Amino acid sequence: MQIPIDISVLKSVLSIDDEAAQQKIDQIDRVRINEDKVVELKRQKDGITVEVPNNLGGGLLGIELVDKYGGTITTLAYDLKTKEFRRPRKHEEEKKKTTE
């Protein structure tokens, strides 16, 4: 299964602007899923496509974007059932605190 990650995905999930999203994409060297498996990525002009195995079932897939030094740029949550990205739980908790 191929999962595209581009500027629009990062903007919506991380609530950042075009420039910040492009900077994150430019820093990506590799991708790790579920904290242990490094997967192949293909670069496009404004993003990447991640190739993940089809046999992962349902639930959430943790996609960690990693820079050339092995540092984590960001971690994304991808719902395998709905085939959509979710906002990080930390972001949702902060949003709740500010509205209370």
Would you mind describing this structure in some detail?
With 100 residues, the chain is α+β, with helices and mostly antiparallel strands. It is built from three helices and eight strands; from the N terminus they run E-H-H-E-E-E-E-E-E-E-H. The protein has one domain. Strands 3-2-6-7-8 form a five-stranded antiparallel sheet, with no helix packed on it. It has a three-stranded antiparallel sheet with strand order 1-5-4. The C terminus is likely disordered.
The neighbouring-strand order within the major sheet is: 3-2-6-7-8
Please tell me what the overall shape is.
globular
Order of helices and strands: EHHEEEEEEEH
Q: Uncertain regions: pLDDT < 50 for 5+ in a row?
A: 91-98
Distance N to C terminus:
40 Å
Short characterization:
With 100 residues, this protein is an alpha+beta fold.
List its traits:
100 residues; 3 helices
How are the secondary structure elements laid out?
Layout: E1 2-6, H1 7-14, H2 18-27, E2 30-33, E3 37-39, E4 41-44, E5 47-51, E6 60-66, E7 72-79, E8 84-86, H3 89-99
Antiparallel strand pairs: 1-5, 2-3, 2-6, 4-5, 6-7, 7-8
